[in-house]
Amino acid sequence: MAKSVADVMTHDPITVRPDTPLKEVIKILADRRISGLPVIDAEGKLVGVISETDLMWQEAGVTPPAYIMVLDSVIFLQNPATYERDLHKALGQTVEEVMSREGIITVTPDKPLREAARMMNQHKVHRLPVLDETGRVVGILTRGDIVRAMADEETA
Question: Cα(120)–Cα(86) distance, rounded to whole angstroms?
């Protein structure tokens, strides 16, 4: 019988709130040896994801966009809005200031594991928050979960 996401996901995953200090998130990620966390609101609904990638701006800093001066005008060679977003992440102190909000791929517990793995591959993501029918986070599916499920099948 084909496995579903619910069969291998981590139930009741560690989550954080938008107002959680980044220092706390960094400690959780380091202590638990995980690379990202779902961000939930007061009702337990997903509002974003915070990952190591989001936190890298804190250490790496931001390079201002290249520009040229023509007469008295500044012409940016890159999108200055991207710079502003990255700068905000580099200076942020709470999850809300640095988390990713858009383009988050999610899955339901009843989705076949093979389809979830295909989604992760297609979108090049390391984790999928698992949401119930109301949008509440009930689990998280990671690449590691899928590999462990594959190993279990090999030994069975």
Answer: 25
Domain residues for the domain of 38 are 5-155
Alpha-carbon span 41 to 112, nearest angstrom: 27
Neighbours of 113 (CB within 10 A): 21
Q: What CATH number is associated with residue 128? A: 3.10.580.10
Residue-by-residue pLDDT tens, the chain, 156 positions:
689 999 999 998 999 999 999 889 989 998 999 989 999 999 999 999 998 887 775 554 545 555 556 666 666 556 656 655 554 555 568 889 888 888 899 999 999 999 999 999 999 999 999 999 999 999 999 999 999 998 888 776
Within 94-134, strands assigned E span 127-131
Residue type, 125: V
Write the DSSP symbol of residue 100: B
Q: Is the whole-model pTM more than 0.85?
A: no
Number of domains in the chain: 1
Q: What kind and span of H or E run contains 142?
A: strand 137-142
Q: Distance between CA atoms of 100 and 49, rounded to whole angstroms? A: 5
Picking from 98, 86, 104, 89, the residue whose alpha carbon sits closest to that of residue 19 is 98
